[in-house]
Amino acid sequence: MFTREGRYSFMISPLSYLLDLLIINLLAHFLPLQFQFPLVFHTYISLGWIIIAILTEFYAIYRYSKVTYILRLLTRQLFFFFLILYAFIGFFKQPNMSRLALAQYAGLVFFTVSILKFISYYLLMNYRGKIKGNLRNVVVIGKNKKTQQLIDVFNEHAEFGYDFKKQFCPKEDVFNIYKCFRYIVDNNIDEIYCSVSELSNTQIDEIINFADNNLKTLKFLPDNKNIYTKKLKYEYYDYLPILSLRDIPLHKPLNALVKRTFDIVFSLVMIFGLLIWIGPILAILISLESRGPLFFIQKRSGLDNRPFNCYKFRSMAMNKDADKHQARKNDMRITKIGKFIRKTSIDELPQFYNVLFGNMSVVGPRPHMLKHTDEYASRVDKFMLRHFVKPGITGLAQVKGYRGEIQKESDIQNRIKLDIFYIENWSFLLDLKIIVQTILNIFKGEDKAY
């Protein structure tokens, strides 16, 4: 099975949010601004800062971002923050607030946030460049002027954090794309950079499929081939344009923070609202019908295809085939109480502990048994793409009817199509819609809930 190395870059943006919010609130608390309602003011500036940051993408800083780009972000963020500060006086009728003190506060915020922004920027650059931390292993496919420029960028800008491993030349007679793939897997390569001018359309398709199925980030040095017909994202490394094939919304730190915050709050509500009292009742009922533990714990494939222990209320008699075969209709292994909790999806409730622990999300692609992951990865195209995000208790494929037993090949293919659509088009509203539809389906009943 293929996995990606653990990454911690996603923590930088949420920590920056928290630190900046702490700064603007501490400065507001200690400066003599003379506002009448402290709680209202602190809530106002905090929400205002977050909304402006979202709109200006203030925390969208990448390892190849330039100082001038950060200056533009700072200028936009603090200009709009200055405007909402003075709007507070009119909105909440604060005639006693000192305009001068407010201007001094805005200037101090600008100075402090800017200093911290550049300190963190240079610390990260030095961490990558000198300590060699937070690196991405990369290979380049292609040998021309542009690929050499890219390799020079990797080698000369160590602060970007790219560890260039090898260059492959498609024009050479000895070039074998499958040996290239084997090298990428064997050497834990994170990102693949391709010059499409040296690749045939068939080779491009093979590389795209390989990257999708093995959780590798794929980027292109552009030319005028049909790669432009795809949804692409432009980035610049130094002054060299790079195209990213797929932009996953949940890989953006703010989106990940929003989803994780919702997951924690929702799982706590479910644990203390349902599990705390339904658990003891089920423990008695399950133990009366069959011997064995209350919980069924099984290894499942999670984020980046890392295995984790998935929790369920035990709905079957103890058997040796639990890790090999899915439950089927009229499965003799399912107990009477098990039939009820599976039909109502109560057996899935302990997975809210998985959500709280960070192994799963409330909404996402359903996690598969390790055996099934290996099986489907080899026969279903782009199956591994579903591991770019955390698995979920419920998902888009499940509310569309593709839950439970895989009876025919089209079942798994349609499930993967819906999983990929969810990954590429995630939004918080989509998550809420899936949760509501899941609840409606429980009351309505589902044919494959067995």
TrEMBL record:
Per its UniProt record, what InterPro entries does this chain match? Bact_transf, EPS_sugar_tfrase
According to the entry, every stretch annotated as the Bacterial sugar transferase domain falls at 259-443
The membrane topology noted for this protein in its Swiss-Prot or TrEMBL record is:
Multi-pass membrane protein
**Keyword tags:** Membrane, Transferase, Transmembrane, Transmembrane helix
Pfam families the UniProt entry points to: Bac_transf (PF02397)
The organism sits in which domain of life? Bacteria
Sample GO molecular function, one term = phosphotransferase activity, for other substituted phosphate groups
Q: What is its main location?
A: membrane
Annotated localization: Membrane
> Can you tell me where the transmembrane regions are?
12-33, 39-61, 73-92, 104-124, 264-288
Task: Please give an example of a GO cellular component term from this record.
Answer: membrane
| Recorded family membership | Belongs to the bacterial sugar transferase family.
Q: Which NCBIfam families match?
A: EPS_sugtrans
For this entry, the protein name equals: Exopolysaccharide biosynthesis polyprenyl glycosylphosphotransferase
Organism annotation: Lentiprolixibacter aurantiacus
